[in-house]
Write a structure and sequence with these properties.
It is a single chain. The chain is mainly β. The protein has 1 helix and 9 strands; from the N terminus they run H-E-E-E-E-E-E-E-E-E. The longest helix has 18 residues. A hairpin with a 4-residue loop joins strand 5 and strand 6. The protein is elongated and about 50 Å long. The protein has a single domain, classed as Sandwich (Jelly Rolls), CATH 2.60.120. Helices cover 13% and strands 47% of the residues.
Length: 137
């Protein structure tokens, strides 16, 4: 095969190899009931399943999140999305972040909740469900 044909073939196949490595996974869990102020509460871990086919060399590009609050929202609620390596403060019940860009796509995530103040909560805050979707390359 001559150099010109080989170069043309590589140009055609290069985008396919990049595309083949891209993907995403998603997970959802039940939330937690927040009953005390001044304490951290964590969600159950959210991670890809083996069936989702995430490889150890895949890295995160963007993470989408959503959590659902049942009842009255408390303005003292602080929420972070965390891996073992880092945490990112998130605002609102849904959104996206690139704070985890470059971390392994196999990373395990947890939502971390903190209610400002001290003592029991008059009306417990019920986080009904947490969801994330992780895009990777």
């Amino acid at each position: 095969m001559n150099v010109k044909r080989l170069s043309a073939l590589l140009l055609v196949l290069a985008p396919l190899t990049v595309y083949a490595a891209q993907g995403g996974w998603n997970a959802s869990k039940s939330g937690v009931m927040l009953t005390y102020r001044g304490q951290l509460f964590n969600s159950s871990p959210l991670a890809p399943t083996p069936a989702q086919g995430v490889k150890t060399d895949n890295v995160i590009t963007v993470v989408y999140w959503r959590y659902t609050v049942d009842g009255v929202y408390d303005p003292g609620l602080r929420v972070k999305l965390c891996t073992v390596q880092r945490c990112a403060e998130i605002e609102g019940g849904s959104g996206q972040t690139q704070a985890f860009r470059g971390l392994p796509a196999t990373s395990e995530f947890r939502f971390t909740y903190f209610l400002e103040g001290k003592g029991c909560v008059y009306r417990p805050i019920d986080i009904r469900q947490v969801e994330i979707a992780v895009n990777y390359e």
